[in-house]
Amino acid sequence: MNIYAHISRAALQRDSEYAFVAVGKNGHDAKLSYAQFDTQVKSLCAGLTERGIGKGDRVILLIPMQIELYVCMSAIMRIGAVTVFVDPHMRRDHFDNCCRLVKPKAFIGTSKAHLFRVFCKQLRKVPIQLTTGRLPGFIARSIGTWMRKPLHRPAPEITDVTDDHPALIGFTTGSSGVPRGSTRTHGFLNAQIEALFQPGEKRNSVVDLPGFPVLPLDNLVRGRTTILPQILPGKVADIEVKTLLAQVARYSPDMMSGAPSYLETICAGAEAANCTLDSVKILFTGGAAMPKSGLQRLRAVWPSARVVIVYGSTEAEPVARIDATEIINECYSLSTRGHGYCVGYPIDEIESAILPLDFINSTIADLSEAVLPSYCVGEIVVRGSHVNTQYWNDPQGEKKNKIQTPGGIWHRMGDAGYRDAKGRLWLLGRCHNAISAPWLPSPDDNPRSFNPRQSAWIFPYQVEAIINNLEGIKRSAYVGVNNGYHLVVESVDDSSDIVSLETFLRAAITGFPLTRIWFQPLPVDPRHNSKIEYQKVIDLLKEQGA
Q1: How far is CA 251 from the centre of its chain?
Q2: CA 191 from chain center: how many Å?
Q3: What are the structural domain ranges in the chain?
Q4: How far apart are CA 363 and CA 366, in angstroms?
Q5: Is the peptide bond prior to 346 cis by the omega test (within 30 degrees of 0)?
Q6: Cβ neighbours of residue 41 under 8 Å, at least 6 residues apart?
Q7: 389/403 Cα distance (integer angstroms)
Q8: Class of 312-436+445-454 per CATH?
Q9: Under 8 Å between Cβ of 90 and 114
Q10: 232, 428, 440, 538: least surrounded by Cβ within 10 Å?
Q11: 470-543: what CATH class?
Q12: Quick one: average pLDDT of 72-82?
């Protein structure tokens, strides 16, 4: 079923209720009811089909988190075309390669986004150039007139598609190599929205102020009102907090979400304003781990909310979740002993397993023969109806990241971790960031607890989870460079006594090898402003003589 059929049904039911509220011009909020949203989508559908865009055509969108993004995405899916999302912060050659892979028929972007055409040859080759802003017609045609233009004839019917028909292609960041186009079908999106429809506080939510761009699609299907924050791509930690706090006061959202850096910025603003966000009943965070103090801070600023940590990836979201209370009360004491980060219980809609780190098969008759027992370190793999099974036009990527079995396709998460006796998943770091350990491994075929020295490898989170939970530490990175073991620390206060701090840090990670400690800012990913970019850290340390 076309995912827009669900949105159309919600539009009929909610009609005059708001679908979106966003910060507008001149101090007036922009508001769009469900009926108005559905009308704009239909009008845009008519404009797109008149330009020759139809079922199966790929359309690249470069629009920030604003109402136009969701009108465009919905219209594209309604006519059976395919929305393509490419991270604007990826390397230009990677961006060009993404365009080459999908062969888009159209590009829709803000006026500023069309500057990418200057640098990206493949984007200039796209036949149909459209903009949400105002540009000369020879550069790009504005879709604003289509969206506001009354329909004088019936809108195109919702295109009938099979469950395996692609709806979205989202390219990974390329942090583990070449960006790959993760294909989300209409069936995938339907299953994902069902998986997202948890827990109870989320099912009962009616007003959401999300920090993740994908969640408004879930809100549209469920008939919720979405309050859109002002977030610029790659600057999620630089939001205008006063504006957001005013939105919370005005519209009383009962649900919020965001990456750690985004939520920490809100915390700082709320603390400065001496206010709490009492209307919120459930708060989701994910995309990177948070220290214990960070989660405690969230609970203080959102005192009425259930705080839930979600684990997933571009290819599989969500995979697992856990309440912050359980993390604080049970898991952080283990994290401070080199056990990594707990990311929770796999959701009911997904199967998960831990495979040996050296498992390289892309096909296997019986995966259970390779599955490791609890507490053994390996790579996390998952399978489910909302788990991506293919990459767009990328058979090599599929061979590397998918495992074919008679029962279905499993996806390699690329994360090293293990399962504990309660069934919770723990992360140790990305598999490709493994550092050769100086000790002889002490494996156990049936361990009853986690042994940090069981493997021939050390993973970054084993050390970082210890350091990041210390007072005064903003973030850290543990990397191997030229046979040395290096810890890079970014402290909250630059005026700290470095000699005393270094002594303290060395004592904290006794048992893990350490060549040198460096004190300097750490590069983070542009998408969440939370994940460490390890290769950049390694390159920087090599330049500094490590």
Answers
A1: 26
A2: 17
A3: 1-185, 197-304, 312-436+445-454, 470-543
A4: 9
A5: no
A6: 4, 71, 74, 75, 78
A7: 9
A8: mainly beta
A9: no
A10: 440
A11: alpha beta
A12: 98
**One fold for 1-185 and 312-436+445-454:** no
pLDDT in tens, 394-447: 999 999 999 999 999 999 999 999 999 999 999 999 999 999 999 998 888 889
Q: For the chain, how big is the Rg over CA atoms in Å?
A: 24
Per-residue pLDDT tens for 450-476? 999 999 999 999 999 999 999 889 999
CB 264 within 8 A of CB 297: yes
> What CATH class is the domain 197-304?
alpha beta
**Of all residues in the chain, what percent are helix, strand and coil, respectively (each to 5)?**
35, 25, 40
Closest to 76 in 3D by CA, of 36, 105, 48, 39: 48
CB 278 within 8 A of CB 304: yes
**Average pLDDT for the chain:** 93
Helices (DSSP H) in 374-459: which residue ranges?
A: 395-401
Task: Judge whether 417 and 427 are in contact, CB under 8 Å.
Answer: yes
Is residue 70 within 8 A of residue 217, CB to CB? The reply is yes
DSSP state of 71: H
- CB–CB of 132/142 below 8 Å? yes
Angle at 517 between CA 516 and CA 522, to 5 degrees: 130
Tokens describing residue 408 = 């279905």
**3-state secondary structure (DSSP) of residue 359:** coil
The DSSP output letter for 537 is H
Beginning with the edge strand found earlier in the chain, give each strand of the sheet holding 484-491 in spatial order. Answer: 473-481, 484-491, 516-519
Distance CA 25, CA 15 (A): 25
Res 148: pLDDT: 77
CB of 22 closer than 8 Å to CB of 68? no
CATH 3.40.50.980 fits 1-185, yes or no: yes
**What is the distance between the alpha carbons of residues 245 and 247, in angstroms, rounded to a whole number?**
5
In order of 284, 350, 388, 415, 460, the CA distances from 432 in angstroms are 28, 24, 21, 9, 11
Q: What is the mean pLDDT of residues 496-513?
A: 92
> Which alpha helices (H) appear in 79-211, and where do they start and end?
92-102, 116-119, 121-124, 144-148, 186-196, 200-203
- Burial class from Cβ neighbours inside 10 Å (0-12, 13-18, 19+) for residue 244 reads buried
Q: What DSSP line would sit under 1-59, residue for residue?
A: --HHHHHHHHHHHHTTSEEEEE--GGGPPEEEEHHHHHHHHHHHHHHHHHTT--TT-EE
| Coil, strand or helix at 258 | strand
Give CA–CA dist 528/212, Å, rounded.
9
